[in-house]
Amino acid sequence: MSRAPARSYRSFAFKGASFRIACPLFGLATREIRRQRNLLEQYLRRQPEFRTALAPLALLPGAPEVAVRMQAAAAVTGVGPMAAVAGAMAQLAAEAALAAGAGEAIVENGGDIYLDSPEAVLIALYAGPGALSGRLALEIQPAEMPLAVCSSSGRLGHSFSFGDCDLATVVARDAALADAAATLAGNLVRRESDLPRALERVAGLPGVAGLLLVKGEKVGLAGRLPRLVRHADERFDLKITRGKAGLLP
Prior knowledge:
Number of strands: 12
Number of domains: 1
Largest sheet: 8 strands, antiparallel
Shape: globular
Radius of gyration: 17 Å
CATH superfamily: ApbE-like domains
CATH class: Alpha Beta
């Protein structure tokens, strides 16, 4: 089994969002999360419907970068912009640290991850109590980064979903897009027979590199994913972001 180098991850929680971060500039990354969250909250007071929209909508003048990224992802996928918030926050925090010379930044926001590292990163798949949960992982090589790996589920976590997918994982360069596309994929899967249609629809979106869907004992793959490897970690349960399906660095 392939193994990624040992890393030190630290936890951070802010206004209901839970993060796991591996970055030498941890303080800078968390400050950026606070800053971006405050900017988004200020914008939501100007445009309250941005919080509840289930489809793309026009932005007001002067919208902050986080809202711009969320709305751009919504426009591609057709879902509401808040479906992209976790991914957008993760990428903005990682980019701030990398721009300041961090060298490595892995930011996970409730199952949505943005990462850039000079070393390989192993991301374990968590799909709740199913037989496949914790047994597979994506092995991401330096040449494949920076990269976003985001997940959604109709069974786990607090995110709203129209579907009943155990796990929908999307890989893309843009984390807001990956987050929104994972939501779309999860919405499309109610039964195992829905997997082919969902794979075709989401894999065809501009900017989506690949996706993995789990429904029951069925796994569907499409596009270009990092290498899928067997995974075993005796500390797996301790790394699960509480109450959220997704991916565990």
